[in-house]
Amino acid sequence: MYGYEITQKVKTLTNGELSITEGALYPALHKLESEGLLKVEMVKVDNRLRKYYRLTDAGEKETASKLSELERYIQTMQQLVNPKII
């Protein structure tokens, strides 16, 4: 996807609960690209160059790792908020 498309997809998937500005998105995309986690492809659309971003294999692995880490964090927080009394 290209940058604006990413912002709109996030808004749609979260029913408007999460909104990412392009000003916040592009520095993150550039950082991920420099770390080898994103591949960028330039495509000419209506006489304009558009950057499309795609996860690399390393990006896919990092995403899976971060999602797993987030799940563990959420479980830990749930245990703190709602502890089971033994």
TrEMBL record:
Transcription regulator PadR N-terminal domain location: 1-64
Any Pfam family: PadR
UniProt xrefs under InterPro entries: Metal_resp_DNA-bind_regulator (IPR052509), Tscrpt_reg_PadR_N (IPR005149), WH-like_DNA-bd_sf (IPR036388), WH_DNA-bd_sf (IPR036390)
SUPFAM superfamilies hit by this protein: Winged helix' DNA-binding domain
Leader sequence segment: none
Record-linked PANTHER family: PADR-FAMILY TRANSCRIPTIONAL REGULATOR (PTHR33169), TRANSCRIPTIONAL REGULATOR RV3488 (PTHR33169:SF14)
Protein name: Transcriptional regulator, PadR family
